[in-house]
Specification:
This protein has 150 residues and is an alpha+beta fold. The chain is built from 3 helices and 7 strands. Strands 1, 3, 4, 5 and 7 form a 5-stranded mixed sheet that branches. A hairpin with a 2-residue loop joins β3 and β4. The longest helix has 17 residues.
Length: 150
Amino acid sequence: GYPLKGGTISVQDNVAKLFNLRSHRDVNVRKVPQRDVELDLVELVLKDQHIGRSGMFRLKQSLVGSCMYVGKKLSHSGMRVNVRELWCKDSRVMCGCITENTRVVYRSASASMLFIVQLSCEMWQFNKNGNLYMETAITGFFADLLAHWK
């Protein structure tokens, strides 16, 4: 690198905390080729929103050429996502650059499920405990299933 005497580098607080950088310390800075820090995969997490395929495409295109770090919060055209994981050369990394070749994976933190239950005439009959089979399915099977998923 090129020595800079008395130069100042400013780093955002959240980035400094992520990389354990303390203020007013001497650092060595060197320029690296982009291919060395090119990300293979970026995993983005969204919550309480829906992003269609066109939105995913537009978001990825807007990120090309930018640097990412784990935990970064992104906002584009009303879409809000957080960076969860970054991969470069088969290893998890803390930061890197997004290129045209970077794959972007979207994960939802707010899953939505739809159960479809066929109500046959047997579901309206009573079991040996005096409950409808439909009630048993809802209070028994579904309650146990949801408790298991918590």
